[in-house]
Specification:
Length: 311
């Protein structure tokens, strides 16, 4: 058993980070995203090997990311096949073709459909892009039309003015979320295994962040063209480094560090956790707390900048 574990751990693809003592712990680790797979070695494994009898091991993998899931299965099969060849030579088990057989089990996405991975990502990307672009044009448009001075002399307080700019886009954002999710489920067959109300609540954090970023961009831009340019400068890196296209674990370390400060990274984990895995807040609270912190900081900065711009 230790030799088989070492065979997995010494590869570049696998890291043995946890030892579980029951299936519930395995399920909890994979649901929370702490682990991407699990190797289950039964108690009779060593006994069967020494007796020259076939031994079976189970391998669980997270199918919510088909790319890494397919690679993990291929690598696990290769490791077990190499170990079987080694045992046949060492124990002289010529009568047994494969001393060890691997029994794979794919969670959440047994068919390894790429759409299951990408569709929740599209929901997050569309929600971010449209919200930021529309909001970034809000104050710039007022400035170009010359109505900013009228807003300044209006009886509205600064907080009321900021809220009046954000509320319409909050409504647009939620409407967009509902339409995109409904389209993905009805037309493209995206699963919805978790609590939809929880998805709406946690989406409000990311929606508020996107609004704050858009307003922040609008305060530092002199015209709508500059606002669009600044928006794309923010949006393009998030598309490639948030885990939307490539699993973050497969990225270089520098890219992983950048991904850790991108709010979309945590929102995509929330989306895929609720939509694909069906997990609850007990497995997503860390992502929610980080996203809430980033949202609060960005909203405070945007509010301060807007007040200075209006003054």
């Amino acid at each position: 058993t230790p030799e088989l574990i070492e065979s997995f751990d010494k590869t570049e693809f696998f890291n043995v980070d946890y030892y579980a003592f029951d299936y519930e712990e395995i399920a909890s680790r994979i649901e929370s995203g702490d682990a991407k797979g699990a190797l289950v070695i039964p108690p009779e494994y060593s006994r069967n090997i020494h007796r020259g009898e076939p031994a079976q091991v189970q391998f669980f993998t997270d199918g919510s990311e088909p790319g890494s899931g397919i690679q993990s299965l291929a690598n696990a099969n290769l490791i077990v096949a190499n170990k079987s060849t080694e045992l046949m030579s060492k124990e002289q088990l010529s009568e047994v073709q494969l001393p060890i057989s691997l029994q794979p089990r794919i969670w959440y996405n047994p068919a390894m459909q790429s759409s299951v991975f990408y569709l929740p990502g599209f929901v997050g990307i569309l929600m971010q892009n449209i919200t930021i672009i529309l909001t970034s044009l809000a104050i710039v448009r007022e400035r170009e039309r010359g109505t900013m001075e009228q807003l300044n002399i209006s009886p509205l307080r600064r907080g009321e003015l900021i809220a009046s700019k954000m509320i319409p886009y909050v409504i647009i954002g939620y409407t967009q979320l509902l339409l995109v999710v409904a389209t993905a489920i009805v037309i493209f067959g995206m699963p919805m295994r978790g609590n939809f109300l929880l998805l709406l609540v946690l989406s409000s954090l990311f929606l508020t962040f996107s609004l704050a970023i858009g307003l922040l961009i609008s305060t530092i831009s002199q015209n709508q063209f500059q606002a669009m340019q600044a928006s794309f400068m923010v949006l393009v890196p998030t598309i490639f480094l948030s885990g939307f296209i490539f699993p973050i674990e497969s990225m270089p370390k520098v890219a992983q560090w950048i991904a850790s400060v991108i709010p979309l990274t945590y929102y995509l984990r929330i989306l895929r956790g609720i939509v694909v895995k069906g997990v609850g807040i007990e497995h997503l609270w860390q992502e929610a707390v980080i996203l809430a912190g980033m949202t609060a900081v960005t909203l405070i900065l945007a509010t301060i900048k807007i007040r200075k711009s209006l003054d």
